[in-house]
Structures are given as C-alpha cells and as structure tokens.
Amino acid sequence: MTLDLASRSLPDLWQTLGNIDAVHGAYYLLMHAVFGLFGTDLLVLRLPSVLAGALAAAGVTALGVRLSGTRAGILAGLSFALLPDVQRYSQEGRSYSLVCALVVWAMYFLVSAVLGCRVPVITGRRSSVVPWIAYGTLMLMACILHQFAALALVAHAFALPAHARRPWVYTALLVAAGVAPLAALGMSQSGQVAWIDGVTGGEYQRFALLALFAIALSCFASPGSVGKVSPEAPFSLRAIALPLFVVPTALLMLVSLYQHFYVERYVLYGLVGLALLLGAVLDRMLALGIGLRATATVAVVLAITLLVPESFKLRTPESRSDNVTDLAIVLSREYAPGDGILYLSVKRRAWSLAYPSVNKGMSDLAQELTPAASHDLYGTELPSAQIRARMRNSARILVVAEPKGVRAESNGTEVVKKRVLAEYFTKEATIRIDGAQVTIYEARTAAAAAERVGS
C-alpha cells in the first residue's frame, strides 16, 4: 500500500488523502520524498523502518543509561532489539518503527526536562525550555505519523513528579492542538478500519499475563533513579517504564469496546517500557552474587535460544500474512494471453500493487478505475452486470482470493462473481500460497470442447 500511494504524484496523493487514509498521510509524504531521492523499490521502502529501528534501540539504550546506569541501558537496548515485534516492524514499509523511535527519544528529552524543572529549586539556576520544546516536537511528529502515539502522553502523565506537571500539561495541550485537525479528518474516514475485529478473549488474556509479568519485573528492577537531586520526587526507571508498557495498550483495548481500533502494532512503542524493565532486572541480577549471576546467564541464553529462530523466521517470505512475491510469480507463470484476472474482494487488488510490472497487460475483469485514477486505495469496480458480461466472455479466469477461513471485506460484487463462476465455469486447479490462493477456472463450454478434441 505504501509503495503505491507514495509513488503517486503529489496532487494525486493529496487528493487521495482527502478521500481516505489521511491518518497515514504524513508517512506517505515522507516516503514520496524518499522515493524521489533514492528510487522506488522494496529495498528503499523498508530502509526508513530499518534505520528507525536502530535509532529506537539506541534511544532505549540512552534512556536506560540515564535512568539506571550504563549496564542496565545496554541490556535494555539489546533486549529491545531482540523482541520479535520490534524486528518485524523494523523491516516493513509502515510508520510503526519510526513512531517508536520518536516516542523513545521524546521520553529521553522528557527526563531532561523533568530534571531541569527540579534543578533550579536545588541550585537556584534557571531551567531551560529546550528539553520541553524537543519533547513536544518529537511527540507531535509521532502523533502526526500515527495518532495513537498520543496514548504515550497518558503514560507519561503517570510517571511525572508533581513539580513537572504544569509544564508537561502545557506541552501536551500544544501537541494535542497540533494533531487535532488530522485526528478529526481521520475520524471522518473511520470506515477504512472496518476490517478490525473486536479484541478477542485470547488477546485480553495475553495482555493480562504480560502486564503481570511487567509488574513482577518492576518489583525486581534495579532501583536506579535520575531523581537523586530530590529524594521527595524520584523519577525512576520503573516509574516511566511500567506505565508505558501497560497504559497505551489498556486504553486502546478499552476504546475498542466502543469502536474497534485495537491492533497490537498501533502501540508498538509500549515495548520500550518492557525492554527498560528487562534491562534493569538483568542488571540487578548480575549485581547480586554468583548464584543469581549464573541464573541470569542461563535465562539470557535461554531467551536468545528461543528468540533467534523466531528472528530468522521473520526474515523469510513465509512470515508475511500476504506473500505478494509468490503471488506475482504464480500469476506471471499461469497467465496466458486472453485470460482474465478476477480479484474476489476489491481489497485483494492491493496485492498487485507491489509488482505493477507483473500485472501490466493482464485483463482485470472487474476493475473500472485503477487506485491512482480513482484516488482511492483499491480502485473502483464495474457494475455487477458488466462484470458478469466480461466473465461470460472469458474462456479462462485466474481468481485471486484469500484462503478459506479468512474474512475479506466485500463491496457487493463478490456474490455476483461467485455465482457466475459456479454457473458457467469449472474449477481446474487451486494454487495456495501464504495468505492467498489462485484458483484457475475454465468456461464449461471451452472445457467440453477440449474434451471432445482430446477424445
């Protein structure tokens, strides 16, 4: 999706964002500039996420060092880099990795700003507004890239000592005002997230277990604090890490009881809190004697043993829910001149956008306007009567659909497509790939003629 939208001209992209997907508009504009500098391909598409993942890991390390010491910071950075979800979204062409990097560095400047508020009370010096400006700017950028980054602001509120609340409130209000127009536009386009299901019981249970695990970690975490200038108002690692891990996800789940918005990657930055806690716990275990040091070593080795295979798996095509590369290979191999391509759901046409050269020249039986021409994500489809006529005039159709058991949003033409296939075509073969399947249909008259020739 990012590849297609960011490749459009600026007027076309701007018009599309007025219709749909404005919540990701800033990222598409950023990638449009990146493509303009380095060319349009999948490597360039993923490069910003890779760099953002590295920047986020560096930020976790710097924050851990600031909050709990050098060793805890390094261990936190390493823990963050090993988390499977961090690795996954650090190689995808979406905004989540970049949002995570912005949030973690905003937190770094928040710590500096809080200390700046307290130092004048002790020393009599004027505090600087620069850290607050940096914090507010980075949080605004994160919220513009993805509005659910604003939930990190709520987590920060839980961590603040009393003396820093007033400047934080001013900064948070400015951030909210800056992102409000985009949020309002996004809410007017909320129909685009109709595909999101409600939170399942398994997801609630998983989050509850992880939250309990994080609470246990916070109880055992190294008590290091940057609040040594004032024993009355410590600003500790666990004070900021635990709310960051728990609060955004909990709030998004609560909101999803009213409107289905919960998707785990929307609050990816919460893993920063988990990594900080892991680093602090490992640091404390290493400092508590030979027995616990050996236990910590065994735990780390076991964790690496479990995570490394997952890391390698994430770098294979099979790890993707939609393997568009294999789909492009299958279509180019099976398609013959005169065949028709039929996407059973209008949304599945997005699979063709990653390799436009492969689909060029193929007859898309249901398409009226391309996504670019319609200023939309998936393009528009012909009226049902015209789709039916085109299908009846085809001797062979390659039907692209989701695997059985996977729900796809329908625009009303899917029923007609299935009915025509059932009445006038014979299923010849089905080729299954990760996240999709291609079924080859031949017209019954053509199949009968072929049988007569063969006999």
Please give a handful of descriptors for the protein shown:
Rossmann fold, elongated, 62% helix, alpha/beta, 455 residues, five-stranded mixed β-sheet, 2 domains, two-stranded antiparallel sheet
- Tell me the radius of gyration: 26 Å
First-last Cα distance = 48 Å
Helix segment count?
20
SSE string, helix = H, strand = E? Answer: HHHHHHHHHHHHHHHEHEEHEHEHEEH
Work out the number of β strands.
7
Please, how many domains?
Answer: 2
Strand content: 5-15%
Helix share of residues?
Answer: 55-70%
Q: Give me the side-by-side strand order of the main sheet.
A: 2-1-5-7-6
- Global mean pLDDT: 83
Provide the low-confidence segments as ranges.
225-234, 447-455
Q: Assign the structural class, choosing from mainly alpha, mainly beta, alpha/beta, alpha+beta, or little secondary structure.
A: alpha/beta
> What would you call the quaternary organization?
single chain
Verbal overview:
With about 450 residues, the chain is an alpha/beta fold. The protein folds into two domains: about 40-315, no CATH class; about 325-455, Rossmann fold (3-Layer(aba) Sandwich), CATH 3.40.50. The chain is about 60% helix and about 5% strand. The protein is built from 20 helices and seven strands. It has helices at about 1-5, 10-20, 25-40, 40-70, 70-80, 85-90, 95-125, 130-145, 150-160, 165-190, 200-220, 235-255, 270-285, 290-315, 325-335, 355-360, 370-375, 385-390, 415-425, 445-455; strands at about 340-345, 365, 365-370, 380, 395-400, 425-435, 435-445. The strands form two sheets. It has a five-stranded mixed sheet. A two-stranded antiparallel sheet has the order 3-4. β6 (about 425-435) and β7 (about 435-445) form a beta hairpin. α4 (about 40-70) runs antiparallel to α5. The radius of gyration is 26 Å and the shape is elongated. Residues about 225-235 and about 445-455 have low confidence and may be disordered.
